[in-house]
Amino acid sequence: MQPSRLAALLYGLGLGGFVDGIVLHQIFQWHHLLSHTSDHPVDTVPGLEANTLADGFFHLVMWLLVVAASVTTIAAWRRGAIAPNWSFHFGLVLAGWGIFNVIEGLINHHLLQLHHVRDDLGGPPAWDIGFLVVSVLLIAAGWRLHQRGVRALPQGGPSGTP
């Protein structure tokens, strides 16, 4: 039985969200979850409190995705799935990270306009577009790496399929 694709994608979604939240929100402080909204400006204490709370709930959801990935991994192993090789697994983790970025970018940056990649610079569109381009490249590179891992899986196995 093949390794779980869902587990690796869930890891990618959750870890990609952690990269966004930890690096862009906390370390670089380019934006927060609600930083482009007029109700929650980051230059006031109440606005920063609201943004910090929203960022915390965002991190909670990312943590739940990683927990779901762990549960899915263990469930697959208990069903007899083989452990993934590095290319199979990390290819899907990269693709999941890219998928997270595309969804988050399209919804939060473009559709709802909750924040932009660089709200600290006034939200220039080039950063949002660049974020989507890099995200699509993550998906493509991840899928290519994953396919290399699929080809390296042992043939046959308990179910008689690769």
Helices and strands, with pairings:
Blueprint: H1 5-27, H2 45-78, H3 86-111, H4 125-151
Helix pairs in contact: 1-2, 1-3, 3-4
Please, could you describe this protein's structure?
- Helix 1 runs antiparallel to helix 2, helix 1 packs across helix 3 and helix 3 packs antiparallel against helix 4.
- The chain is elongated, with a radius of gyration of 18 Å.
- The chain has 162 residues and is an all-alpha fold.
- It has one domain.
Short recap of the structure:
By secondary structure, the protein is mostly helical.
N-C termini distance: 7 Å
- Helix amount, in percent? 55-70%
Characterize the overall form: elongated
Q: Report the radius of gyration as a whole number of Å.
A: 18 Å
Number of domains: 1
Low-confidence stretches: 157-162
If helices are DSSP runs of H or I spanning 4 or more residues, what is the number of helices? 4
- Annotation, overall tally of beta strands: 0
User: What pattern of helices and strands is seen along the backbone?
Assistant: HHHH
Largest sheet: none
Task: Provide the residue-averaged pLDDT.
Answer: 94
> What is the percentage of strand-forming residues?
under 5%
Class by alpha and beta content: mainly alpha
Essential attributes:
162 residues, mainly alpha, 0% strand, disordered C terminus
